[in-house]
Amino acid sequence: MKKILDLISEEVTKVFVECGYDAKYGKVTLSNRPDLCEYQCNGAMAAAKEYKKAPFMIADEVAEKLVKNPMFSMAESVKPGFLNLKIEEACLADYVAKMQEDEGRFGCEKVKEPKTIMIDYGGPNVAKPLHVGHLRSAIIGESIKRIGKFVGHNMIGDVHLGDWGLQMGLIITELSLRKPELPYFDEAYEGEYPAEAPFTISELEEIYPTASKKSKEDEAYKEAAMQATFELQHGRRGYQALLSHILNVSVTDLKRNYKNLNVSFELWKGESDAQPYIPDMVQKMKNDGFAYISDGALVVDVKEETDTKEIPPCMILKSDGASLYNTTDLATIVWRMEDYHPDQIIYVVDKRQELYFTQVFRCARKTGLVAPETGLKFLGFGTMNGKDGKPFKTREGGVMRLEHLVSEINGEMLKKIVENQKTKENLDISEEEAKETAKVVALAAIKYGDLSNQASKDYIFDIDRFTSFEGNTGPYILYTIVRIKSILNKYYGSGKNARGAVIEAAHSDSEKNLMLELSKFNAMMENAFEETAPHKVCSYIYDLANAFNSFYHGNKIMTEENETVQKSYIRLLELTKAVLETSIDVLGFSAPERM
After folding, report:
1. CA dist 417 to 260, 400, 422, 475, 487, Å?
2. Fewer beta carbons under 10 A from the terminal one: N or C of the chain?
């Protein structure tokens, strides 16, 4: 189904051509003055120079023909040469009705040539709890993946675990001191290792910070951890078995936490999965003449003539032969290309890592790890700050665990729902339903609060504002959906039926405005994916929710006496609900039945 702007542009373009002007001048955009018109065309302003005519003369000529076109209820020329347009109500209603017929898609066509797109987001370290710093990557990445799937691409999300390096050696070293009798530390042991891990997730989460603290105070302890890391990376059997336990226990807990955020991954790969690819990759870089020794380390030059600032070489191996994050990320690209042949890889990472990813991407391209046509995209996100403008912390000043933040917002939402229930005597919600509803609304508050900001910008995480039922918030969007559900339940519960009825031409300005907002859905969704911009979905549903609420307050839906008009209203409400629910689904949350 064509976008409504394209349909309107086609009609305007035809008239420009009929009048003897180039088709390129017929492009129509949304009006930047909605108080004057719904759409505008500035082509006459641009054509004036080429055709050596005053722009208002061209605009007058085009407007004179457009007023006869049944698509428009208004087409007027405004000096110095703008074309102001309004779509005819019946034409708009017909477009919206066709959206409704296209159930589940609402006029948004799937891409004709689907791509395989891998998206690297999440990035947690094993043996550590998720904290608020992991929130943005998870929420933004999940949403982009869902938007991509909706428009028709094959999206593959990879959590990319931090499961390699010194942190593993630290855990092994600390565990060897606490439980030296375990078979993992006996190099002569040849039997089967226990299936059960020798620690719980809570023990594991205590072991790592303890070991990390010791390594900063005790040089011998740090040396032992580095040796353990070396032996693990070079295949020591007992340490490899311990790594499997660490991964199993950590990943089980990570999955539970991500599930609470309605975030999931197609792949649970980690840095360790890239290790087998490193030797051949490094050797190829040497053989092809890209990698060379500089101050003992193996590096690849990635600077380009057009650089305006210094881009240091990409280090492949340290002077002691050890690999780095660069090495692992490059080897990860190798296995992704071998196993999945992606058309694009998107990295959703803190924007402060932009220079690092510039080095990695350039190195991957220069050394031929990716095909020239394969896209490598860095999507850097800003910091989530507290009300003081500094990175979000607990009241005690520490980094807050993610599950504690979610729990705190759940509690805040439950309190508001209970208070709301007291003001509505007919709203009888059980304690269990109230708790479930609070979880659903809290998740919307968190996700919408984050996603409504442009990803690259820092933002203030304000719990009071995010949990409000008024303003540009997740709860406001959900409250709007619940309001529509309530009206529909009352209508159908009264024995009436609007199924099969069609949406009529708007009977009021507020109804037309609601239809205008609905008609933007397919263009918005395509644009949100093209620009990897979930905030555009948020902006759209906020405008749509506002348009619905204006319509709701300005029209008597349940008491409308004309049955045909009422059925048209109900069908419009059904479409509005479906579009809102589809939009929040790609953002990664849902709406309850009641609030």
Report:
1. 20, 25, 9, 11, 20
2. N
